Amino acid sequence: QMNLDESGGGLVQAGGSLKLSCVASGRTFDTNVLAWFRQAPGKEREFVAVINWYGSTIKYADSVKGRFTISRDNNKNAGYLQMNNLRPEDTAVYYCAVRLGMWIPPTPEEYDYWGQGTQVTVQS
Prior knowledge:
The chain is mainly beta. It is about 0% helix and about 50% strand. It contains no helices and eleven strands. Strands 2, 4, 5, 6, 9, 10 and 11 form a seven-stranded mixed beta sheet that branches. The N and C termini lie far apart (about 40 Å).
C-alpha cells in the first residue's frame, strides 16, 4: 500500500507561480511512474504531466507545456509540479497519482494510487 500526500496549493494571481509537492509513504521502494492530474468543477479529470522513475521520460499536456515542470526526488519519495505563469483556467484540484512499474498508463483509471488532492485557484 502506498499513501500520497499533496501540498502546495493555494490562491494566486494570474501570472504567479506555485509549486506542488507529493510525498509518498508506505510502498516506496518499487519503481513507479508519477503523474499529476487536475479536475475543475463540472469537468472530467485531465492529465497534466507524468515522469518515470529515472526522470528519463516526461510528458506534458499541451495546455501546460512551457509553463509547468514535473520532477521527482526518489531519495525523498517525493514528486513536484512547478507551475509558472498560472492562468485562471488552471484553477482545479490537483492530484498526484502513482503507477507501479515503468509503463506509463494512457488513462487515469490505470494508476494504482492517488492522493487526496490540493486546490489551486488562480484569480484574474
